[in-house]
Amino acid sequence: MSDTLAIVLRLLAVFVVFLVFPLVIGQTEHKVMAHMQGRLGPMYAGGFHGWAQLVADGVKFAQKEDIVPAGADRRIFQLAPAVALLPYLLVLVAIPVGPHNAVGQALDAGLFFVLAVMGVGVLGSLMAGWASANKFSLLGGLRTAAQLLAYELPMLLAAASVAMAAGTLSLPGILDAFHWWWVPWQLVGGLVFFTAGLAELQRPPFDMPVADSEIIFGAYTEYTGLRFALFLLAEYAGIVVLAALTSVLFLGGWHGPFGADGLGWLWTLLKTAVLAFGVIWLRVTYPRLREDQLQKLAWTVLIPLALAQIAFTGVVKVLIS
Amino acid sequence: MLAAASPGFLSPTGVEIAFLLVGIVTLGAAVVTVTTRQLVHAALWLVVALGGIAVEYLLLTAEFIAWVQVLIYVGSVVVLLLFGLMLTKAPIGRSPDADSGNRWAALTVAIASAVALVWVVVDAFRATWIRLDTVQGSTEVSGRSLFQYWVLPFEALSVLLLAALVGAIVLSRKKGEPPAASEASATSTPSVIAAPPAASAASAASGTSAAPAGGDGDTAGPAPREDR
Predict the structure, then answer these.
(1) pLDDT for residue A204 is more than 60
(2) Which of A72, A130, A283 sits opposite B90 (nearest CB)?
(3) Residue ranges of the domains in chain A?
(4) For residue B49, which of A43, A201, B177, B182 sits 20 to 30 Å off, Cα-Cα?
(5) Residue B212 pLDDT exceeds 70
(6) Residues B113-168: pLDDT tens digits?
(7) B39 contact A CB<8A
(8) Is B115 strand, coil or helix?
(9) Residue A149's pLDDT is what?
(10) B86 touches chain A (CB under 8 A)
Protein backbone atom coordinates (compact mmCIF):
# COMPACT_ATOMS: atom_id res chain seq x y z
CA MET A 1 0.00 0.00 0.00
CA SER A 2 2.73 2.44 0.95
CA ASP A 3 4.41 1.70 -2.37
CA THR A 4 1.31 2.68 -4.29
CA LEU A 5 0.95 5.79 -2.17
CA ALA A 6 4.57 6.76 -2.80
CA ILE A 7 4.14 6.37 -6.55
CA VAL A 8 0.94 8.42 -6.53
CA LEU A 9 2.63 11.15 -4.49
CA ARG A 10 5.60 11.25 -6.85
CA LEU A 11 3.40 11.49 -9.92
CA LEU A 12 1.34 14.17 -8.24
CA ALA A 13 4.50 16.17 -7.49
CA VAL A 14 5.60 15.85 -11.12
CA PHE A 15 2.17 16.99 -12.25
CA VAL A 16 2.29 20.05 -9.99
CA VAL A 17 5.74 20.91 -11.34
CA PHE A 18 4.36 20.49 -14.84
CA LEU A 19 1.52 22.90 -14.10
CA VAL A 20 3.50 25.53 -12.21
CA PHE A 21 6.97 25.76 -13.75
CA PRO A 22 5.93 26.59 -17.33
CA LEU A 23 3.77 29.41 -15.99
CA VAL A 24 6.67 30.73 -13.93
CA ILE A 25 8.89 30.63 -17.03
CA GLY A 26 6.21 32.40 -19.04
CA GLN A 27 5.82 35.16 -16.49
CA THR A 28 9.61 35.50 -16.26
CA GLU A 29 9.72 35.81 -20.02
CA HIS A 30 7.17 38.64 -19.93
CA LYS A 31 9.18 40.49 -17.33
CA VAL A 32 12.70 39.80 -18.61
CA MET A 33 11.80 40.70 -22.18
CA ALA A 34 10.14 43.88 -21.00
CA HIS A 35 13.12 45.00 -18.95
CA MET A 36 15.60 44.15 -21.70
CA GLN A 37 13.52 46.28 -24.04
CA GLY A 38 13.28 49.19 -21.60
CA ARG A 39 9.62 48.80 -20.60
CA LEU A 40 7.69 47.44 -17.64
CA GLY A 41 5.69 44.51 -18.96
CA PRO A 42 2.42 43.42 -17.34
CA MET A 43 1.88 45.42 -14.14
CA TYR A 44 -1.79 45.21 -13.15
CA ALA A 45 -3.09 41.64 -12.92
CA GLY A 46 -2.77 40.37 -9.36
CA GLY A 47 -1.39 43.61 -7.97
CA PHE A 48 2.33 43.06 -7.37
CA HIS A 49 4.14 43.60 -10.68
CA GLY A 50 1.42 41.79 -12.58
CA TRP A 51 2.28 38.36 -11.20
CA ALA A 52 -1.11 36.91 -12.17
CA GLN A 53 -0.91 37.93 -15.82
CA LEU A 54 -0.61 34.38 -17.10
CA VAL A 55 -3.53 33.21 -14.96
CA ALA A 56 -5.57 36.05 -16.46
CA ASP A 57 -4.36 34.98 -19.91
CA GLY A 58 -5.47 31.44 -19.17
CA VAL A 59 -8.95 32.65 -18.19
CA LYS A 60 -9.07 34.70 -21.36
CA PHE A 61 -8.07 31.72 -23.50
CA ALA A 62 -10.67 29.50 -21.82
CA GLN A 63 -13.40 32.01 -22.64
CA LYS A 64 -12.56 32.22 -26.33
CA GLU A 65 -14.51 30.28 -28.91
CA ASP A 66 -12.88 27.05 -30.00
CA ILE A 67 -12.90 27.22 -33.80
CA VAL A 68 -12.12 24.35 -36.13
CA PRO A 69 -11.77 25.54 -39.75
CA ALA A 70 -14.36 24.13 -42.12
CA GLY A 71 -11.80 22.50 -44.41
CA ALA A 72 -9.71 21.07 -41.59
CA ASP A 73 -9.30 17.43 -40.68
CA ARG A 74 -11.37 17.76 -37.54
CA ARG A 75 -10.18 14.93 -35.37
CA ILE A 76 -6.46 15.36 -36.00
CA PHE A 77 -6.78 19.13 -35.66
CA GLN A 78 -8.29 18.66 -32.21
CA LEU A 79 -5.87 15.94 -31.14
CA ALA A 80 -2.69 17.82 -32.08
CA PRO A 81 -2.33 20.07 -28.97
CA ALA A 82 -2.48 17.04 -26.67
CA VAL A 83 0.18 15.24 -28.70
CA ALA A 84 2.35 18.34 -28.48
CA LEU A 85 1.94 18.83 -24.73
CA LEU A 86 1.78 15.39 -23.11
CA PRO A 87 5.32 14.20 -24.01
CA TYR A 88 6.81 16.97 -21.88
CA LEU A 89 4.75 15.79 -18.92
CA LEU A 90 6.10 12.28 -19.44
CA VAL A 91 9.68 13.53 -19.73
CA LEU A 92 9.44 15.37 -16.43
CA VAL A 93 8.75 12.04 -14.71
CA ALA A 94 12.27 10.82 -15.48
CA ILE A 95 14.30 13.94 -14.60
CA PRO A 96 16.00 13.69 -11.20
CA VAL A 97 16.02 16.81 -9.04
CA GLY A 98 18.02 15.58 -6.07
CA PRO A 99 20.11 12.70 -4.72
CA HIS A 100 18.63 9.63 -3.01
CA ASN A 101 16.01 8.79 -5.59
CA ALA A 102 14.36 12.21 -5.76
CA VAL A 103 12.93 11.47 -9.18
CA GLY A 104 9.45 10.70 -10.43
CA GLN A 105 10.48 7.27 -11.71
CA ALA A 106 14.06 6.11 -12.11
CA LEU A 107 14.43 4.45 -15.52
CA ASP A 108 17.20 2.15 -16.61
CA ALA A 109 17.43 3.80 -20.03
CA GLY A 110 16.24 7.21 -18.85
CA LEU A 111 18.40 9.16 -21.29
CA PHE A 112 16.88 7.37 -24.26
CA PHE A 113 13.43 7.74 -22.75
CA VAL A 114 13.63 11.52 -22.48
CA LEU A 115 15.09 11.99 -25.96
CA ALA A 116 12.59 9.59 -27.55
CA VAL A 117 9.56 11.12 -25.90
CA MET A 118 10.71 14.68 -26.62
CA GLY A 119 10.91 13.75 -30.29
CA VAL A 120 7.30 12.58 -30.21
CA GLY A 121 6.14 16.05 -29.17
CA VAL A 122 7.06 17.41 -32.58
CA LEU A 123 4.45 15.10 -34.11
CA GLY A 124 1.87 17.44 -32.57
CA SER A 125 3.17 20.38 -34.59
CA LEU A 126 3.22 18.27 -37.75
CA MET A 127 -0.36 17.11 -37.19
CA ALA A 128 -1.46 20.68 -36.52
CA GLY A 129 0.32 21.96 -39.60
CA TRP A 130 -1.22 19.39 -41.89
CA ALA A 131 -4.73 19.22 -40.44
CA SER A 132 -5.33 22.98 -40.49
CA ALA A 133 -5.89 23.02 -44.27
CA ASN A 134 -3.92 26.25 -44.42
CA LYS A 135 -0.89 26.91 -46.61
CA PHE A 136 0.93 28.83 -43.89
CA SER A 137 0.30 25.99 -41.48
CA LEU A 138 1.58 23.44 -43.96
CA LEU A 139 4.72 25.49 -44.54
CA GLY A 140 5.20 25.72 -40.80
CA GLY A 141 4.75 21.98 -40.45
CA LEU A 142 7.27 21.32 -43.20
CA ARG A 143 9.82 23.58 -41.60
CA THR A 144 9.19 21.92 -38.24
CA ALA A 145 9.86 18.49 -39.73
CA ALA A 146 13.01 19.62 -41.53
CA GLN A 147 14.27 21.27 -38.36
CA LEU A 148 13.59 18.22 -36.22
CA LEU A 149 15.37 15.92 -38.67
CA ALA A 150 18.39 18.20 -38.72
CA TYR A 151 18.72 18.82 -34.99
CA GLU A 152 17.71 15.46 -33.52
CA LEU A 153 21.02 13.94 -34.58
CA PRO A 154 23.45 16.40 -32.90
CA MET A 155 21.28 16.30 -29.77
CA LEU A 156 21.50 12.51 -29.63
CA LEU A 157 25.23 12.50 -30.31
CA ALA A 158 25.89 15.06 -27.58
CA ALA A 159 23.79 13.06 -25.13
CA ALA A 160 25.59 9.88 -26.16
CA SER A 161 28.88 11.53 -25.22
CA VAL A 162 27.67 12.02 -21.64
CA ALA A 163 26.36 8.46 -21.51
CA MET A 164 29.80 7.23 -22.62
CA ALA A 165 31.48 9.32 -19.94
CA ALA A 166 29.21 8.00 -17.21
CA GLY A 167 28.97 4.45 -18.50
CA THR A 168 25.21 4.38 -17.95
CA LEU A 169 22.01 5.58 -19.58
CA SER A 170 20.17 6.18 -16.33
CA LEU A 171 19.87 9.86 -15.46
CA PRO A 172 20.43 9.43 -11.69
CA GLY A 173 23.31 7.09 -12.61
CA ILE A 174 24.89 9.78 -14.75
CA LEU A 175 24.66 12.24 -11.87
CA ASP A 176 26.12 9.72 -9.44
CA ALA A 177 29.16 9.40 -11.70
CA PHE A 178 29.55 13.16 -12.11
CA HIS A 179 32.73 15.00 -11.17
CA TRP A 180 33.25 18.76 -11.43
CA TRP A 181 35.78 18.40 -14.28
CA TRP A 182 33.08 16.92 -16.47
CA VAL A 183 31.85 20.45 -17.12
CA PRO A 184 34.93 21.53 -19.11
CA TRP A 185 35.31 17.99 -20.50
CA GLN A 186 31.78 17.92 -21.94
CA LEU A 187 31.54 21.65 -22.64
CA VAL A 188 31.30 21.36 -26.42
CA GLY A 189 28.72 18.60 -26.13
CA GLY A 190 26.71 20.71 -23.72
CA LEU A 191 26.65 23.67 -26.10
CA VAL A 192 25.62 21.42 -28.99
CA PHE A 193 22.90 19.79 -26.88
CA PHE A 194 21.48 23.10 -25.70
CA THR A 195 21.54 24.64 -29.18
CA ALA A 196 19.91 21.61 -30.77
CA GLY A 197 17.33 21.55 -28.00
CA LEU A 198 16.50 25.20 -28.64
CA ALA A 199 16.01 24.34 -32.29
CA GLU A 200 13.71 21.43 -31.43
CA LEU A 201 11.61 23.74 -29.30
CA GLN A 202 11.52 26.24 -32.18
CA ARG A 203 12.65 28.99 -29.86
CA PRO A 204 14.41 32.05 -31.29
CA PRO A 205 16.81 32.24 -33.02
CA PHE A 206 15.53 28.94 -34.45
CA ASP A 207 11.89 29.99 -34.81
CA MET A 208 11.66 29.85 -38.58
CA PRO A 209 8.76 27.31 -38.40
CA VAL A 210 6.61 29.83 -36.53
CA ALA A 211 8.09 32.98 -38.05
CA ASP A 212 5.19 35.32 -37.43
CA SER A 213 6.32 37.99 -39.87
CA GLU A 214 6.27 35.66 -42.86
CA ILE A 215 4.09 32.62 -42.21
CA ILE A 216 1.87 34.13 -39.47
CA PHE A 217 2.34 31.49 -36.77
CA GLY A 218 3.25 28.41 -38.74
CA ALA A 219 1.44 25.27 -37.69
CA TYR A 220 -0.56 27.10 -35.00
CA THR A 221 -2.09 29.73 -37.30
CA GLU A 222 -5.62 28.34 -37.22
CA TYR A 223 -5.77 27.59 -33.51
CA THR A 224 -7.83 29.60 -31.03
CA GLY A 225 -8.71 29.52 -27.37
CA LEU A 226 -7.58 26.70 -25.13
CA ARG A 227 -5.97 24.63 -27.86
CA PHE A 228 -3.71 27.54 -28.79
CA ALA A 229 -2.93 28.00 -25.10
CA LEU A 230 -1.93 24.33 -24.91
CA PHE A 231 0.59 24.86 -27.70
CA LEU A 232 2.04 27.86 -25.88
CA LEU A 233 2.14 25.81 -22.68
CA ALA A 234 3.99 23.07 -24.56
CA GLU A 235 6.61 25.61 -25.59
CA TYR A 236 7.20 26.72 -22.01
CA ALA A 237 7.11 23.15 -20.69
CA GLY A 238 9.70 22.42 -23.36
CA ILE A 239 11.93 25.18 -22.00
CA VAL A 240 11.66 23.69 -18.51
CA VAL A 241 12.50 20.22 -19.79
CA LEU A 242 15.42 21.38 -21.94
CA ALA A 243 16.93 23.52 -19.17
CA ALA A 244 16.51 20.74 -16.60
CA LEU A 245 17.97 18.12 -18.93
CA THR A 246 20.97 20.27 -19.84
CA SER A 247 21.68 20.94 -16.19
CA VAL A 248 21.37 17.24 -15.33
CA LEU A 249 23.49 16.00 -18.22
CA PHE A 250 26.16 18.65 -18.53
CA LEU A 251 26.15 20.84 -15.42
CA GLY A 252 26.00 18.21 -12.70
CA GLY A 253 22.37 18.55 -11.59
CA TRP A 254 22.26 18.40 -7.82
CA HIS A 255 26.04 18.68 -7.40
CA GLY A 256 27.28 22.05 -6.23
CA PRO A 257 30.20 23.61 -4.40
CA PHE A 258 28.46 22.98 -1.07
CA GLY A 259 25.29 21.56 0.44
CA ALA A 260 25.13 18.59 -1.91
CA ASP A 261 23.26 16.48 0.63
CA GLY A 262 20.39 18.55 1.89
CA LEU A 263 20.15 21.27 -0.70
CA GLY A 264 20.85 19.28 -3.85
CA TRP A 265 17.45 19.99 -5.36
CA LEU A 266 18.12 23.70 -4.93
CA TRP A 267 21.19 23.42 -7.17
CA THR A 268 19.14 21.65 -9.83
CA LEU A 269 16.50 24.37 -9.68
CA LEU A 270 19.10 27.13 -9.76
CA LYS A 271 20.87 25.72 -12.81
CA THR A 272 17.55 25.12 -14.56
CA ALA A 273 16.46 28.68 -13.84
CA VAL A 274 19.72 30.18 -15.11
CA LEU A 275 19.47 28.17 -18.34
CA ALA A 276 15.82 29.12 -18.80
CA PHE A 277 16.85 32.76 -18.35
CA GLY A 278 19.42 32.17 -21.08
CA VAL A 279 16.70 30.85 -23.39
CA ILE A 280 14.67 34.01 -22.84
CA TRP A 281 17.75 36.19 -23.26
CA LEU A 282 18.48 34.58 -26.63
CA ARG A 283 14.93 35.33 -27.77
CA VAL A 284 15.35 39.01 -27.03
CA THR A 285 18.82 39.43 -28.48
CA TYR A 286 19.23 37.22 -31.54
CA PRO A 287 17.75 37.69 -35.02
CA ARG A 288 16.03 34.75 -36.62
CA LEU A 289 18.16 32.32 -38.65
CA ARG A 290 17.07 31.81 -42.23
CA GLU A 291 15.93 28.32 -43.20
CA ASP A 292 19.07 27.46 -45.17
CA GLN A 293 21.26 28.86 -42.39
CA LEU A 294 19.38 26.64 -39.94
CA GLN A 295 20.11 23.52 -41.96
CA LYS A 296 23.70 24.52 -42.58
CA LEU A 297 24.33 25.15 -38.89
CA ALA A 298 23.04 21.71 -37.96
CA TRP A 299 24.75 19.64 -40.64
CA THR A 300 28.07 21.44 -41.00
CA VAL A 301 28.72 22.77 -37.50
CA LEU A 302 26.79 20.96 -34.79
CA ILE A 303 27.12 17.38 -36.03
CA PRO A 304 30.91 17.56 -36.61
CA LEU A 305 31.31 19.21 -33.20
CA ALA A 306 29.22 16.48 -31.57
CA LEU A 307 31.23 13.75 -33.30
CA ALA A 308 34.48 15.42 -32.19
CA GLN A 309 33.13 15.54 -28.64
CA ILE A 310 32.35 11.82 -28.76
CA ALA A 311 35.85 11.05 -29.99
CA PHE A 312 37.35 13.27 -27.29
CA THR A 313 35.19 11.62 -24.63
CA GLY A 314 36.30 8.20 -25.79
CA VAL A 315 39.99 9.13 -25.73
CA VAL A 316 39.81 10.63 -22.24
CA LYS A 317 37.75 7.71 -21.00
CA VAL A 318 40.37 5.23 -22.20
CA LEU A 319 43.20 7.31 -20.76
CA ILE A 320 41.73 7.57 -17.25
CA SER A 321 40.51 3.99 -16.96
CA MET B 1 15.13 -19.30 -18.23
CA LEU B 2 13.51 -22.67 -18.87
CA ALA B 3 11.04 -22.97 -16.07
CA ALA B 4 10.78 -26.42 -14.56
CA ALA B 5 7.04 -26.22 -14.06
CA SER B 6 6.02 -24.45 -17.20
CA PRO B 7 3.08 -22.08 -16.61
CA GLY B 8 -0.08 -23.00 -18.43
CA PHE B 9 -1.96 -21.05 -21.00
CA LEU B 10 -5.23 -21.20 -19.10
CA SER B 11 -4.30 -19.00 -16.17
CA PRO B 12 -2.78 -15.92 -17.76
CA THR B 13 -1.14 -13.28 -15.64
CA GLY B 14 -1.91 -9.59 -15.87
CA VAL B 15 1.13 -8.94 -18.01
CA GLU B 16 0.09 -11.63 -20.47
CA ILE B 17 -3.40 -10.21 -20.80
CA ALA B 18 -1.98 -6.71 -21.31
CA PHE B 19 0.46 -8.09 -23.88
CA LEU B 20 -2.37 -9.70 -25.81
CA LEU B 21 -4.58 -6.60 -25.72
CA VAL B 22 -1.78 -4.30 -26.86
CA GLY B 23 -0.96 -6.81 -29.56
CA ILE B 24 -4.53 -6.69 -30.85
CA VAL B 25 -4.48 -2.89 -30.87
CA THR B 26 -1.14 -2.92 -32.70
CA LEU B 27 -2.42 -5.37 -35.28
CA GLY B 28 -5.59 -3.34 -35.79
CA ALA B 29 -3.63 -0.11 -36.22
CA ALA B 30 -1.34 -1.82 -38.71
CA VAL B 31 -4.28 -3.08 -40.74
CA VAL B 32 -5.85 0.39 -40.77
CA THR B 33 -2.49 1.81 -41.86
CA VAL B 34 -2.50 -0.18 -45.07
CA THR B 35 -6.22 -0.01 -45.77
CA THR B 36 -7.12 3.64 -45.12
CA ARG B 37 -7.55 5.88 -48.13
CA GLN B 38 -6.27 8.96 -46.27
CA LEU B 39 -2.53 9.18 -46.70
CA VAL B 40 -1.62 11.19 -43.62
CA HIS B 41 -4.00 9.15 -41.49
CA ALA B 42 -2.08 6.08 -42.61
CA ALA B 43 1.16 7.65 -41.34
CA LEU B 44 -0.48 8.51 -38.02
CA TRP B 45 -1.92 5.01 -37.61
CA LEU B 46 1.60 3.79 -38.22
CA VAL B 47 2.59 5.80 -35.13
CA VAL B 48 0.01 3.84 -33.13
CA ALA B 49 1.27 0.52 -34.49
CA LEU B 50 4.94 1.32 -33.83
CA GLY B 51 4.10 2.70 -30.39
CA GLY B 52 2.19 -0.50 -29.65
CA ILE B 53 5.27 -2.53 -30.48
CA ALA B 54 7.28 -0.32 -28.11
CA VAL B 55 4.74 -1.05 -25.37
CA GLU B 56 5.11 -4.78 -26.07
CA TYR B 57 8.86 -4.47 -25.61
CA LEU B 58 8.24 -2.65 -22.33
CA LEU B 59 5.93 -5.42 -21.14
CA LEU B 60 8.71 -7.89 -21.91
CA THR B 61 11.01 -5.69 -19.74
CA ALA B 62 13.18 -4.78 -22.72
CA GLU B 63 13.24 -1.12 -21.77
CA PHE B 64 16.19 -0.07 -23.89
CA ILE B 65 14.80 -1.58 -27.09
CA ALA B 66 11.43 0.01 -26.38
CA TRP B 67 12.83 3.52 -26.14
CA VAL B 68 15.03 3.02 -29.17
CA GLN B 69 11.92 1.91 -31.03
CA VAL B 70 10.14 5.14 -30.06
CA LEU B 71 13.19 7.27 -30.80
CA ILE B 72 13.98 5.84 -34.22
CA TYR B 73 10.61 4.86 -35.60
CA VAL B 74 8.13 7.27 -34.07
CA GLY B 75 10.53 10.17 -33.66
CA SER B 76 12.45 9.93 -36.92
CA VAL B 77 10.99 7.57 -39.49
CA VAL B 78 7.40 8.74 -39.14
CA VAL B 79 8.49 12.38 -39.11
CA LEU B 80 10.41 11.65 -42.30
CA LEU B 81 7.32 9.99 -43.79
CA LEU B 82 5.11 12.93 -42.89
CA PHE B 83 7.71 15.31 -44.28
CA GLY B 84 7.73 13.42 -47.55
CA LEU B 85 3.93 13.34 -47.68
CA MET B 86 3.68 17.05 -47.04
CA LEU B 87 6.31 17.82 -49.67
CA THR B 88 4.63 15.79 -52.38
CA LYS B 89 0.94 15.21 -51.84
CA ALA B 90 -1.06 15.42 -48.68
CA PRO B 91 -4.70 16.16 -49.44
CA ILE B 92 -7.17 16.35 -46.60
CA GLY B 93 -9.76 13.67 -47.07
CA ARG B 94 -9.68 10.55 -49.22
CA SER B 95 -7.35 10.09 -52.15
CA PRO B 96 -9.10 7.76 -54.60
CA ASP B 97 -5.83 7.01 -56.37
CA ALA B 98 -4.12 5.81 -53.18
CA ASP B 99 -4.86 2.22 -54.14
CA SER B 100 -1.98 0.77 -56.10
CA GLY B 101 -4.07 -2.16 -57.36
CA ASN B 102 -1.72 -4.70 -55.83
CA ARG B 103 -4.10 -5.65 -53.08
CA TRP B 104 -4.02 -9.41 -53.59
CA ALA B 105 -0.28 -9.57 -54.16
CA ALA B 106 0.28 -7.53 -51.01
CA LEU B 107 -2.07 -9.73 -49.02
CA THR B 108 -0.29 -12.86 -50.21
CA VAL B 109 3.13 -11.51 -49.31
CA ALA B 110 1.90 -10.28 -45.92
CA ILE B 111 0.32 -13.60 -45.01
CA ALA B 112 3.31 -15.57 -46.25
CA SER B 113 5.78 -13.50 -44.23
CA ALA B 114 3.53 -13.62 -41.15
CA VAL B 115 3.27 -17.40 -41.39
CA ALA B 116 7.03 -17.71 -41.87
CA LEU B 117 7.76 -15.46 -38.88
CA VAL B 118 5.29 -17.16 -36.58
CA TRP B 119 6.56 -20.57 -37.64
CA VAL B 120 10.19 -19.66 -37.05
CA VAL B 121 9.51 -18.05 -33.68
CA VAL B 122 7.30 -20.88 -32.44
CA ASP B 123 9.77 -23.46 -33.66
CA ALA B 124 12.73 -21.74 -32.04
CA PHE B 125 11.22 -20.94 -28.65
CA ARG B 126 8.75 -23.79 -28.21
CA ALA B 127 8.52 -24.14 -24.42
CA THR B 128 10.73 -21.29 -23.39
CA TRP B 129 9.33 -18.97 -20.77
CA ILE B 130 11.01 -15.82 -19.63
CA ARG B 131 10.39 -14.71 -16.10
CA LEU B 132 9.15 -11.15 -16.21
CA ASP B 133 9.49 -10.48 -12.49
CA THR B 134 13.20 -9.78 -13.03
CA VAL B 135 14.36 -7.37 -15.71
CA GLN B 136 15.58 -9.37 -18.70
CA GLY B 137 16.39 -6.72 -21.26
CA SER B 138 18.16 -3.95 -19.40
CA THR B 139 20.57 -1.67 -21.23
CA GLU B 140 23.57 -3.53 -19.87
CA VAL B 141 22.32 -6.95 -20.95
CA SER B 142 21.38 -5.67 -24.41
CA GLY B 143 24.76 -3.99 -24.81
CA ARG B 144 26.69 -7.06 -23.69
CA SER B 145 24.90 -9.44 -26.02
CA LEU B 146 25.08 -6.96 -28.89
CA PHE B 147 28.79 -6.32 -28.61
CA GLN B 148 29.88 -9.79 -27.49
CA TYR B 149 27.85 -12.19 -29.61
CA TRP B 150 26.29 -10.09 -32.35
CA VAL B 151 29.09 -7.70 -33.30
CA LEU B 152 29.48 -9.01 -36.84
CA PRO B 153 25.81 -8.75 -37.88
CA PHE B 154 25.68 -5.34 -36.18
CA GLU B 155 28.65 -4.04 -38.17
CA ALA B 156 27.33 -5.62 -41.37
CA LEU B 157 24.07 -3.75 -40.81
CA SER B 158 25.88 -0.46 -40.40
CA VAL B 159 27.70 -1.09 -43.67
CA LEU B 160 24.31 -1.75 -45.27
CA LEU B 161 23.01 1.55 -43.90
CA LEU B 162 26.12 3.30 -45.18
CA ALA B 163 25.44 1.87 -48.62
CA ALA B 164 21.88 3.14 -48.43
CA LEU B 165 23.16 6.57 -47.44
CA VAL B 166 25.61 6.73 -50.31
CA GLY B 167 22.87 5.57 -52.67
CA ALA B 168 20.51 8.27 -51.43
CA ILE B 169 23.17 10.92 -51.98
CA VAL B 170 23.85 9.65 -55.49
CA LEU B 171 20.14 9.69 -56.29
CA SER B 172 19.61 13.17 -54.88
CA ARG B 173 22.49 14.69 -56.86
CA LYS B 174 21.90 16.04 -60.33
CA LYS B 175 23.68 14.45 -63.26
CA GLY B 176 27.24 15.54 -63.87
CA GLU B 177 28.18 16.22 -60.27
CA PRO B 178 30.34 13.64 -58.52
CA PRO B 179 28.69 11.99 -55.50
CA ALA B 180 30.12 13.23 -52.22
CA ALA B 181 31.24 10.02 -50.60
CA SER B 182 33.31 11.83 -48.01
CA GLU B 183 30.18 13.24 -46.38
CA ALA B 184 28.81 9.75 -46.07
CA SER B 185 31.82 8.27 -44.37
CA ALA B 186 31.85 11.08 -41.82
CA THR B 187 28.51 10.04 -40.33
CA SER B 188 28.96 6.30 -40.33
CA THR B 189 29.40 5.85 -36.62
CA PRO B 190 27.81 2.53 -35.68
CA SER B 191 26.05 4.04 -32.67
CA VAL B 192 23.95 6.28 -34.88
CA ILE B 193 21.27 4.04 -36.22
CA ALA B 194 19.08 6.88 -37.40
CA ALA B 195 21.80 8.76 -39.17
CA PRO B 196 21.71 7.47 -42.73
CA PRO B 197 18.02 7.93 -43.66
CA ALA B 198 17.72 11.17 -41.72
CA ALA B 199 20.93 12.55 -43.13
CA SER B 200 20.11 11.81 -46.73
CA ALA B 201 16.56 13.13 -46.48
CA ALA B 202 17.39 16.37 -44.80
CA SER B 203 20.34 17.11 -47.01
CA ALA B 204 18.05 16.58 -49.96
CA ALA B 205 15.49 18.83 -48.32
CA SER B 206 17.90 21.64 -47.66
CA GLY B 207 19.12 21.43 -51.18
CA THR B 208 15.79 21.48 -52.95
CA SER B 209 12.95 22.97 -51.02
CA ALA B 210 13.88 24.53 -47.76
CA ALA B 211 15.94 27.45 -48.97
CA PRO B 212 13.44 30.20 -49.76
CA ALA B 213 15.84 33.09 -49.64
CA GLY B 214 18.48 31.44 -51.83
CA GLY B 215 21.36 33.29 -50.24
CA ASP B 216 24.96 32.21 -50.10
CA GLY B 217 24.12 30.00 -47.14
CA ASP B 218 26.84 31.39 -44.94
CA THR B 219 26.09 30.38 -41.37
CA ALA B 220 27.84 33.34 -39.86
CA GLY B 221 26.31 35.79 -42.30
CA PRO B 222 23.83 38.38 -41.08
CA ALA B 223 20.23 37.20 -41.00
CA PRO B 224 17.43 39.58 -41.93
CA ARG B 225 16.64 41.43 -38.75
CA GLU B 226 13.00 41.54 -37.85
CA ASP B 227 10.98 42.63 -34.87
CA ARG B 228 9.26 39.70 -33.34
Answers:
(1) yes
(2) A130
(3) 67-320
(4) A201
(5) no
(6) 999 999 998 888 877 777 777 777 777 888 888 888 888 998 999 999 999 999 98
(7) no
(8) helix
(9) 83
(10) yes
Average predicted confidence (pLDDT) for chain A: 84
Q: What is the reported pLDDT for A112? A: 86
Q: Do A292 and B223 touch (CB under 8 A)?
A: no
B221 pLDDT above the threshold of 80: no
Task: For residues B62-72, give the mean pLDDT.
Answer: 86
**CB hemisphere CA count around B167 (13 angstroms):** 7
Dist. CA A54–CA A263, nearest whole Å: 30
For residue A102, list its beta bridge partners.
Answer: A98
Q: How confident is the model at residue A261 (pLDDT cuts 50, 70, 90)?
A: low
Q: For A116, which of B75, B85, B90 is closest by C-beta distance?
A: B75
Report CA-CA distances (Å) from A297 to A184, A195, A304, B195: 23, 10, 10, 17
Query: Å from B188 to nearest chain A CA?
Result: 10
pLDDT band at A289, cuts 50/70/90? confident
Q: Which residue of A has its CA nearest to B41?
A: A76
**Cβ atoms of A214 and A238 closer than 8 Å:** no
Is A156 part of the contact surface with chain B (CB cutoff 8 Å)? yes
Residues 6+ apart with CB under 8 A from A269: A97
Please classify residue B149 by burial: count the beta carbons closer than 10 Å to its beta carbon, then call 0-12 exposed, 13-18 middle and 19+ buried.
Answer: exposed
For A125-162, the pLDDT digits (tens) are: 888 888 888 888 888 888 888 888 888 889 989 998 98
Element (H, E) at B16: helix B14-35
Is the CB of residue A281 less than 8 Å from the CB of residue A32? yes
Q: What percent of chain B has pLDDT over 90?
A: 15
Range picked from A97-101, A249-253, B192-196 for highest mean pLDDT? A249-253
Cα–Cα distance, A72 to B154 (Å, whole number): 44
B213 → closest Cβ in A109, A292, A304: A292
Is some CB atom of chain B closer than 8 A to the CB atom of A292? yes
The CA distance from B116 to the nearest CA of chain A, in Å, is 31
Quote the DSSP letter at residue B56.
H
| pLDDT band of A259, cuts 50, 70, 90 | low
3-state secondary structure chain A: CHHHHHHHHHHHHHHHHHHHHHHHHHHHHHHHHHHHCCCCCCCCCCCHHHCCHHHHHHHHHHHCCCCCCCCCCHHHHHHHHHHHHHHHHHHHHHCCCECCCECCCCCCCHHHHHHHHHHHHHHHHHHHHHHCCCHHHHHHHHHHHHHHHHHHHHHHHHHHHHHHHHCCCCHHHHHHCCCCCHHHHCHHHHHHHHHHHHHHHCCCCCCHHHCHHHHCCHHHCCCCHHHHHHHHHHHHHHHHHHHHHHHHHHCCCCCCCCCCCCCHHHHHHHHHHHHHHHHHHHHHHCCCCCHHHHHHHHHHHHHHHHHHHHHHHHHHHHHHC
Predicted complex ipTM:
0.81
Total count of residues recorded for chain B: 228
